[in-house]
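Record format v2
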Amino acid sequence: QKEVEQNSGPLSVPEGAIASLNCTYSDRGSQSFFWYRQYSGKSPELIMFIYSNGDKEDGRFTAQLNKASQYVSLLIRDSQPSDSATYLCAVLFSGYSTLTFGKGTMLLVSP
Amino acid sequence: DTAVSQTPKYLVTQMGNDKSIKCEQNLGHDTMYWYKQDSKKFLKIMFSYNNKELIINETVPNRFSPKSPDKAHLNLHINSLELGDSAVYFCASSPDLHNTDTQYFGPGTRLTVL
């Protein structure tokens, strides 16, 4: 069974704080993990992908992967009101060629 | 230039009607997808095509029939529309089946069935 779990939120953080978004998945053998951002009324856009255990940094974004715990997270440093969106975790489960998405976490960054 | 485009952007129709949504990508990708995003924002794969061939059909009712006339186009035809079909439908493309990390989404088509 392919499952990707996220807390639906909303997660509210003040401007300048670190936002931490979490995701768990059902298959320990999965290799590829993605974070998409979706603004209200818009299409999802890829912001990060990670394949290996540990951290991957890109600007204010850090993706963290722990395959043993089947857990992937996204940290957003110095959060800005423009970061307010729904963040979708997606997993490419082993043996599959399409992504399975979580239901997303809504992030609200207040000025 | 728009990488993945969809038409129409909005579609309002009555139950029982038949409608089509069109998708085109100008990225030269081999693989295209249709996703459905329901009112709770859950984004779920419906179909994937690779070089005009159907690869995945994720238990979608056969009222939904995708058609790919060439690898740049993937259209979705829906027969006998039901209330539960109301959702946003996203088309997406990726270079090939093994490069899903570079998947680009179209702007979406909001379908409302009355």
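The radius of gyration of chain A is 13 Å.
The first strand of chain A starts at residue 4 and ends at 5.
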